[in-house]
Design goal:
about 160 residues; mainly beta; eight-stranded antiparallel beta barrel; disordered N terminus
């Protein structure tokens, strides 16, 4: 009896499964977003300019690279952001996974996904908003990396992102 019940539960679960839907990025191009952000790790707070390059040339997937530069804190360019992250859109949030953030004056690296709010396909310019705790990235040691700020599209054709 229990074996039949297990099969029934499995069959019901399969019937409820939804097919994965791919994100769509138009136009298939590379876009640059940039803006002021506060970056915090292990108590140290830095005011930096974050630049994110989104490569959506595939049209159905996107990757991102990022860097920090100096508007007021000299240490910002020394905070390494390594790797090429994959970008996923769920209809509200953009999530970038695969970037490593290594602040110079703290312990551990931040390797967790970074979640941000997409400003929509009709905003002019397009925006990506990072907020605490939504955008916190988990760390290998010490506290999570926290980022807050709004990036605006500064390069490329206006990007539109959909998740059907």
């Amino acid at each position: 009896m229990m074996k039949k019940f297990g099969y029934l539960i499995g069959a019901v679960a399969l019937c409820g499964a939804q097919p994965a839907m791919a994100d769509t990025y138009t136009p298939a191009s590379t876009s640059t977003f940039s803006g002021p952000v506060s970056v915090q790790k292990d108590g140290a707070l830095y005011n930096c300019t974050l630049t994110v390059n989104v490569d959506a040339t595939a049209g159905s997937s996107a990757t991102a690279t990022a860097s920090l530069s100096t508007p007021s804190d000299w240490v910002c360019p020394l905070i390494a952001i390594n790797g090429t992250g994959s970008v996923v859109y769920d209809g509200t949030y953009l999530t970038i996974s695969g970037l490593n953030i290594k602040p110079v004056i703290s312990i551990g690296e931040c390797t967790g996904p970074i979640k941000a709010v997409w400003g929509g396909n009709s905003a002019s310019p397009r925006t990506i908003t990072l907020s605490i705790p939504l955008s916190n990235s988990s760390a290998t040691a010490g506290a999570a990396c926290k980022m807050a700020g709004t990036l605006t599209q500064t390069g490329g054709a206006p990007l539109s992102v959909t998740n059907p």
